[in-house]
Amino acid sequence: MKLKEQLLKRSEGKCELCGSADNLDVYEIPPQSQSDENNSILICGKCLAQIEKKEEPDSNHWQCLSTSMWSEVPGVQVVTWRLLNRFRGESWAADNLDMMYLDDEMLSWAKATGDHENDASVDLHRDCNGAILNSGDTVVLIKSLDVKGSTINAKMGTVVKNIRLVEDNTEQIEGRIEGQVIVILTKYVRKQNS
C-alpha cells in the first residue's frame, strides 16, 4: 500500500490537523531520512501553505490544534507542537502547550528544525502598497529605473508581466523588460489588479 493511501485510510480522508477534506497531500515532517506513516501526515493546502510560511498566518484556522494535540500519531503531535509554539504569544496556544506532553524522543524531533523558536510572522514579497506578490503576477513600475550593466532605462508606468519571485530575498522580483530578465526591487512596483 502506498504512503498516501495509508494516510488517507488513517485520517479517514481528512486533514490530520484541521479536518478539511479539500486539497489533501502528504507532508513529510522534517528532518527525516525515509518517509513512512509515522513521520508523514496528510494535510490540506491551507495548512501546508501556512506551515511553509507561504501565506499569512491565520490564528483562527489553527484553533484546530486544540483537538489535533491529542492525536496518537507521532507526526501530528510534532507538527502540532511546532505550530502551537509559533502562536505561543496567544493565550489559547500557551494554554494548549502547557497541557501537551511529548516524550523526550518526540520533543527532540519537534525541536530538531528550530521552528519552535520562530513566531508566526511571515516574510512575503509585497509591492509598494503592501499587496502580496505571487509568481505570474503583473506589476507596474512606479519609478523610472536604470538597469545596471545595460543601456535599458525602464520608464515609470512600464508594465511587467509574469514576474518571478526571488526565493531568498523578499525585496526582489524578476521580470522581463525589453526582452531582458532583470531584478526589480519590490518597493518600486505596484501590483496590477486583474
From TrEMBL:
Residue ranges of coiled coil: none
SMART domains cross-referenced by the UniProt entry: PhnA_Zn_Ribbon
Domain of life: Bacteria
Domain PhnA protein N-terminal proteobacterial intervals: 6-52
Cited Pfam families: YjdM
Annotated protein name in UniProt: PhnA domain-containing protein
Taxonomic path: Bacteria, Pseudomonadati, Bacteroidota, Chitinophagia, Chitinophagales
